[in-house]
């Protein structure tokens, strides 16, 4: 497994967002690290994004195309959080959906722009919609803006 693909995707996604938002990324660099057994998929820490290995490492000899798409999509998602979540953030955790919703949407646009041959925009839109329907069908479904009443905290499904 290698970071070669991630090293291509990261800078291109940052450039895409800088042009899209017309706002330069303010830090002198953006580090990304794969952590064995990292429980979350990834975390958009300011200047140091942490990833589960499967979402940063890719080897064209042994990895699937689905894995390659996941790596590109998760990197694009976490880098989108540098704008939605880090530069601009919601007033309180009850509206975390704003961070996640826009980061997910922007990641779809970035992956489509970086890899137009994948035609992934419609697939991601349909996949995200089906995922929302799936969660919304559960008895444990909650409003988009919500606070867990037992602990007074909000637990997002995605980070
Ligand atoms: Zn996120």
Number of strands: 3
Instruction: Work out the strand percent.
Output: 5-15%
Ligands, deduplicated = zinc ion
How are the strands of the biggest sheet laid out side by side?
Answer: 1-3-2
Helix fraction bin: 40-55%
Average pLDDT, to the nearest integer? 89
Poorly predicted parts: 149-159
Q: Sheet bearing the most strands, described?
A: 3 strands, mixed
- What structural class do you assign from the helix and strand content? mainly alpha
Query: SSE order in H/E notation?
Result: HEEEHHH
Question: Radius of gyration from the CA trace?
Answer: 16 Å
What is the 3D form? globular
How many helices? 4
First-residue to last-residue Cα separation: 24 Å
Structure in a nutshell:
With 159 residues, this protein is mainly alpha-helical. The protein contains four helices and three strands; from the N terminus they run H-E-E-E-H-H-H.
Polypeptide structure, described:
By secondary structure, the protein is mostly helical. Helices cover 44% and strands 8% of the residues. The chain is built from four helices and three strands; from the N terminus they run H-E-E-E-H-H-H. The longest helix is centred in the middle third of the chain and has 19 residues, at 96-114. The protein is globular. The protein starts with a helix and ends in a 23-residue tail after the last helix. Residues 149-159 have low confidence and may be disordered. Zinc ion is lined by residues 77, 81, 100, 103, 158-159. GO terms for molecular function: metalloaminopeptidase activity; peptide binding; zinc ion binding. InterPro entries: Peptidase_M1, Peptidase_M1_aminopeptidases, Peptidase_M1_dom, Peptidase_M4/M1_CTD_sf. Its main location: membrane. It is found in: Cell membrane.
